[in-house]
Structure formats: C-alpha cells, structure tokens
Amino acid sequence: MSSALQARLTRLGLLLAAPALALLLAYAVTTLVLEIAGDPAGDVWDQILSWPEPRNLVNIINAGSVYYLSGIAVAIGFRMNLFNIGVDGQYRIAAFVAAVVAGEAWLPGYLNTAFAIVAAMAVGALWAGIAGLLRVTRGVSEVISTIMLNAVSTGLVAYLLRKLAVREEGSNDIGTREIPSDSWIGGFPLPGASNEVYGFVIIAAVVGIAYSVVINRTRFGFDLRATGQSETAAVASGVDVKRMIVISMLLSGAVAGLVGLPILFGDAYTYGVTFQSGLGFAGIAIALLGRNNAIGIVLGALLFAFLEEQANPLQIVVGVSPQIVDIMQGVIVLAVVIVYEVVARFGSRLEQRQAGRDLGTGGDAGAGRGGPGDKEVART
Amino acid sequence: MNTAHALEQDIDVAVRLRGIGKTFPGVIANHDVDIDVRRGTVHAIVGENGAGKSTLMKILYGVQKPDSGRIEVDGAQVSFSSPSDAIKVGVGMVFQHFMLADNLTVLENVALGAEELHGIGAKARRRIVEISDAYGLGVEPDRLVSELGVGARQRIEILKVLYRGARTIILDEPTSVLVPQEVDELFGNLRELTSEGLTVIFISHKLDEVLAVADDVTVIRRGTTVDSVGASSVTSAQLAEMMVGSELPSPSTEFSTVTDREMLEVLDLTLPGDGRNLLDAISFTIHAGEILGVAGVEGNGQAELVEAIMGMRSGVTGTVLLAGRDISSLHTRQRREAGIGYIPEDRHRHGLLLDAPLWENRVLGHQGRKPNAKGPFVDAAGARADTQRIVDAYDVRTPGIDTIARALSGGNQQKLIVGREMSGEPVLLVAAHPTRGVDIGAQGAIWDHIRTARRAGLAVLLISADLDELIGLSDRIEVILRGQLVGEFDPSTVTPQQLGSAMTGAG
Predict the structure, then answer these.
(1) Reported ipTM
(2) What pLDDT was estimated at residue A377?
(3) Which CATH superfamily is domain B2-244 in?
(4) What is the DSSP string of A205-231?
(5) What are the structural domain ranges in chain B?
(6) Cβ separation of A359 and B398 shorter than 8 Å?
(7) Which of A117, B82, B185, B331 has the fewest CB within 10 Å, making it most exposed?
C-alpha cells in the first residue's frame, strides 16, 4: 500500500508543479513585455496582485461561474479527444433561445425559468450535435464544422434578433422581450458588497459535480476517457466510438447552452446586441489550464476572472492598457500546454524508472514515450 | 554458412555484416547475423514475420544501433547513428509504405529534404531526368504525385534514394503493394540498377518472387541467418523449409481435452477487400477444450479473421455461432459479454490504456461486468481487488496496481492482459500472437495458463507466427493463405515441408 501512496504523492506533486511553473513563466514574460514597452511593471503587478474589494470579489465569482460552465463544456469534448471550438456559437444561440422563451413567459415564475434552461440546453446540444453527426457520418473534423457553426450561429442570431426583438425605450439597443421578474434567478449578497453573486453559481457547481462524477465514476465516463486515451483500445474493448462521439458532443453542447444563462437570468434579463461574446473561446483556455479536472477548471475560471477584474482599473491607476491581461492569459495557456506535456513525460519516465528499480530490472521497461521531447525531460 | 565464407574472399562485396546482434528488453531480435551482399546483385533476405528482418534492416539503415557485430560498406567498417549517416556511405532505404506528399510534384518530393544537393530548380530537374534515363525509371519530374499510380510512386521512392547518392538500395516488401504487371516492371527496374553496378537488398517473404529476381538469397529464422544460397541452386520448397526450420517442436504430450460440444462455429465468413476478398468463405468449428491454431504468413487475413469474430469489422458476411447462439449481428461489447476473451495482436494499440493505472486496464473490455461494475458506476474497489488477484495469480511484476501500464515491461503487460481476458469465465479465447515480444519466462507462463484453461473446457482460437507455439499448444492447425483456409494439419504428424509450402503457397 505504501507504494500506492507514494505513487499518488508523486502524481500530486507533479500536478501542482505544472501550473505553478506555468504561472511563473507567464509572470516573467508579462514583466518582460511591460519592461520593453517602458511601462511600470512594478505598479502593474501591485494593482493586479492586490486583494480585491468585496464588490470586485462578487464580479470575479460571477464572471468565474460563466467561465466555469464554458470550461466544463470544452472539457467534456477534450476528455475524448474532441475539440469543440463551437462552444461560442452554441452558448449564443442557446442564450438567445432561452431569452426568447423566458421573455414570452408561457409558464409562470420558476417553471418559466426551468423551461428556458432546458430549452437552452437542448438547443446547445442540437447545435453541437450537428458537428457530431457530420463527424461520424461524413468524417468532417469537428474542429472545422464547429468553427463554421459558430459563424452560422452568429448570423442566425442576428437575423432572428431583428425579427423577434423589441427596441428598448430611449435606446438604439434592440433585444428580446425582458424576462418577467418572477422568473429571474435571485442572487445572494457578500458582506460589504453592494452587488450580488449570481444564484446560477449553484447550478454551475452542480454541473461541475455531475461532470466529475460522470467522467470519473461511471461506466459511461470510463468509455469516454478510454476513447480519448486510445480509440483503438476502446474499440477492441467494445466501445461504440461513433455513438460516443455523438453523445459527448450532445453533452458538451448542452453544458455550452448554460454558459450565457447566469448573465441572462441574473443580470441582463434580455438578449441584445451587446450580450457578452467570446465566452466559448475563454472556455478552451480554461479547460486546458484546469487539465479538464472539475476542481482545476474552478481555479482556472477564477484566475481568468480575477485577472480581468483586477486589470480593469489599470488604465486609470497606472496608465497601462488593461489589454495586458490578454497577453498574460495567452502566455499562461501556452506555458500550461508546454509545461504539462513536459511534466507528464517527466512523470511517465519517473514511473518507469520506479517500476524498473522496484523489480530490479533497470529502467526503460516497456514502451518509452520516445519522441523529440525526451531531451526537454532530461533538462527539467 | 559455407557460401558466406566462400564469399569472404571475394573483394567485390558491397555490404558485409558480421556477428550482428540486437537485444530489446526481454527479446533477442538479432544474433550472429552474417551476410555478404555482392556488388551489382539483387540479394534477397527472406524469413517469417518476427524472424528479425525488420530490425536487421533498421540496423543497416541507421535507425537502430546494433549491440554487437560490425557493418562494412565497400570494405570499410562503418557505424551509423542515423539514416543520414547511412546515406552518406551510399545505403538508402525504400519503405513498404511510401512517404510522398500527394499535393507536391515529383520534383518537389525528390528535392524535399535534399535541397542542398542540387537545389530545387532546373539543376534538380536535370539530375532527376538524368537518373531516370540512366536506370529506365521513366519518372516525369513535373507530374503531381496525386496523379500517379502505385508503381510510379515506388519508382519515385527509388529515385529519391538514388538522388541522395545511394549505391545500395534496401527495398522492404516492395511487391506487397503492386499488381503482377507492376511487379514485372519493378523487377525490370531492379535488373537495370544492378547492371549499372548498383546493389539491391530485397526483403520479402514471397518465395517465387524472390527466386525470380534475386541472385543470392539469405534466410533468417529466429533472429539469425540460417544460410545464404544462390537463387539458381535452390527451389522455393527448399527455401520454405529453411524458413520454417528443419526440426519441428514435439507437440504437447498432454491428453486431448477436446469435447464434442461445439463452442465456436464460423460459417462462410467473408470480408470483401480492394479487389480480392480479405476473408474468403472461411468456415471452421472449435469445440470446448480444443485449441485451434491458425498458421500463415502475416498479412493473409489473420488480423481480419480475429476482428471479424470480435465484431470490430464492418462489411463482414457469414455466420458466427458461439455455443449455438448466433452472435453475427452483436456488437463487440455484447460478444465479449457473451463469453469471448480477447488477447489482441498489438497490445499497445488494442489491449491497453498505456497511461492509465493497471486497475483501470483491468476494467477495459470488461466495463459492464462484475467485479468492475455496479449498476451504471465503475466499481473501483472491486476492480482494484481483482487487479491485485490477477497481479498475484499471473505473476505480473509491478510496484503496484496504481502504476501506469506503460511502466511495465512487455511480458508483464501481456500477463496482465491474459489474466484479464481469462477473468469472467470466458467460453472462448481469441488469442492473436499471445506471446509476441515477451520474454521466455512470460511466454512459458502464458502457455501454461492457456493449457490450464483448455483443460477446464475453454475453446481457443490461436493465431501465431511462432511454430513452437502453434504445434506445442494446438489440437489442430489450419493454414490461412490469401484469406482462405487452405489446409488442415495434425500437429503431431505435420512436417515442416507441409506447413512451409501450405503457408507460402509454394510447391
């Protein structure tokens, strides 16, 4: 049992080392960029790394919950080697449909809310399912089809918005009919803050728990992970890969359908031309950062939200564009991808050596990971 | 070996190998390989799959370093640490699977990676035409590769190595992708090459072709050279016998445990392929307690047969009955749950999740069954306990069940797979090359496990290229050739000549 414990501790250590290393790298590169641009790097870091006010904390949690849902949606695909780039289009069309449904208020109160949520998930699933079907019937890469579907959904939503939208009084903004207030999802306060945390945070947490349980504990999740790790081995074990592709695209799309809803039910109450965009692409970065792990994605989502919230006043406080955060986020994701791969190879090597030592047969048992990366490992 | 020693006096040897050996963890791939390749000849190297041909070629081409022995090219000892070292002394390789970019022209493909030789423009084109004319290759430099047929592509591959200055060309199974007319054309090209003083090393297991084109033939068996002979002084039946070995192992002396209960019945199994059928009206029966061995040179339908029985292939027609129940339309998962254990040919691709811990690998393929499943959930505790049982019972050497599969040696990975597939009381075991690439100790252990299970009434379909294994385990041997079962033999009376000629279609 002690060897099992040791293996777990080693794995945990590697798990924590990777993001720490990535963040350090991002810190260094951002500092370098600031120095080269002649901006006060020290002041920028003082602002970003200061402890947020309660009001900002609420904003971070709210933005984080949206990012979290987006990250989970992407992670479902990643777990079986599907790259759902279409979360962006899926959440927008789903949020639009939810706004229309809830705005029409065919049902009273929270029934209306629940119906709109289900509608959003169904539409998201459907939109992603198109890509899944194309993949299994025509062999179209889901990367290509989801990108295309993003463009289609942008156009479709804009078109439908013109048809169905109402103009807000005294504004050029058009949007769907406002959701009646008895269908809003109420928030809860944080001490010292004037604004409220989205009630939808709880739904996001439930989604996260469900994701974790389904992926890690169920037979379905096992099949999904097995397919992601080795499609050939999964086929030999009796997994119907085509069916799995369609189902996981549907699930990914259903969760993507939730992404815009915290904002819709907790803040905007209508889908208009100014509805927040780009949340799906952030989800890709966050899923990578969180290693497709339910807890990891929480941290990734909060980190992204934190950086954005803290960077907001940069222009006023130190005269630096808050877009510096985009650079930071980009570098974090790049660093994370590289560092994770290096650490994974290192860990694999370590375990092989460990197995060799335990059995007294010397290292390099079994199949090495091989490849050009080995040199990097040696240096680490 | 007489021929080899006689040739040693001959000064005109292009490539000489002496005492080449190469060991991988747990496997001896090559030992004491001695070959002399005379300049200006076609020298064929023949042997069963797994005999060590491909490792030998990798050594000669600089992909792998030998552990022992020496390589001489044009009389000078050489040491390769990469293919570019090999090409520097004039040794080039044409692979079985072409490495050409379809969307580039012939010229671009040839110049790619060798730009420093003649650039990428007019000079390169001139050189290509020169080579093409000199050896009658008929290559048009400005055609797009995507417009060309297989034969033309192969000539481009040959031209590529000539362009890079090769004087000795290794061809790995060059005829396997060609139709008969193209084979004749290729042989014409090879004669052209040798008449201009170039040397060709030709790897194949098609004996008739070897005899048609080669000047000398070297036979490899179990990692070492058996003999080198002149092609004119040998028949394909003799070659087949040399490939298979003159002594067959004695069959298992155990009492037969074959019963009259039909466990697996295969009727008229057919799988259409490009042109000819990959499986052609295959029918056989395996009884409880019986091991049916399928012998054959690799690539004659063994892999397809296994995948058809496991339900992993679409387009299969015919009937598969398991204990009387028609499973032809069942999905792989259902077939497994109906009681088929499956030891796949390629354990890394089909048998394991290499980066998952051993206990998750215990679950693989048995997701829906006890002790791995509890309702819709994976029963981690049950699977872990049963993994520990397999590790103990099958002597899987591992630090623990949380170790990733990749960290284990091939033999231990295979013992885990065997243990897993023997779990859940299978009625049929489909075992494809169950001891390939494992060390002797693990091999014996796996054989014992299969024998024990047979005694308990297990029916086994055993696919193997290892005659020791086939004859030592099987109650009956069927030979597969070009997707058809072409002969049935009793392992206690079969002769190597019979097996060899049935397997190669010779004689």
Answers:
(1) 0.81
(2) 31
(3) P-loop containing nucleotide triphosphate hydrolases (3.40.50.300)
(4) HHHHHHHHHHHHHBHHHHHHHHHHH-H
(5) 2-244, 249-339+426-507, 352-424
(6) yes
(7) B82
